[in-house]
Amino acid sequence: MKSDTFHMSMLFDFYGELLTDKQKELFDLYYNEDLSLSEIAEHAEISRQGVRDAIMRAESILRDTEDKVGLVKKYSGYENKLIRIREEASYIAGVNSGLRNYEIAKHVDSIISTVDELLK
Amino acid sequence: MKSDTFHMSMLFDFYGELLTDKQKELFDLYYNEDLSLSEIAEHAEISRQGVRDAIMRAESILRDTEDKVGLVKKYSGYENKLIRIREEASYIAGVNSGLRNYEIAKHVDSIISTVDELLK
User: Fold this and answer.
1) At A13, which CATH number?
2) Exposed, middle or buried: residue A31 (CB in 10 Å: 0-12, 13-18, 19+)?
3) What's the mean pLDDT when you consider all of chain B?
4) Interface test with A, best of B65, B78, B88, B116 (most A CBs within 10 A)
């Protein structure tokens, strides 16, 4: 039954707080800790079917929310792209350390600090 | 009863699809079109109190979702900061048009195109 783990982890990062504490716990053990349904059942002292139902219910809440809200689709690639911008800016800073152009240095610093605000 | 219009519009932009069509319609007329409760009541052919209840219910869904998920807080300032990064990069391109440094030009172009991907 396991769905795409990476996608499920992303949905959980964005919308996990919409789940109950119990759903969060079981979902986390299954998708982030990679325990089997049987292992989780033993740990949580409920039936394997109970674990399965709870996780499927949680998946359905996360998927339905994403279908309506679409924020994972919109923002999930943001962080990597921001890191790329930061790298490009650092590269310009490196080239400019030979040129010593004050205007370039100032604007590169501003790009890096703005990216850092967005990444924090 | 009107809450901060700007904040409510942001919440609506992010989470509006979690509302029913009716809630969306009334909320939009009140917060985006700035109609009064009485005007909306007349338009929708329901009581003023009915309009008020529906909008308060919609507000509560949007606020509760933001309290749990926090994506407006996290992402609402993103666009302005990305535009600022784009401006700084254009400024560097301008300085570099005198210097004609190929490496700087290449990395500035890459920053601008990555920002444009994030803004689209």
Assistant:
1) 1.10.10.10
2) buried
3) 94
4) B88
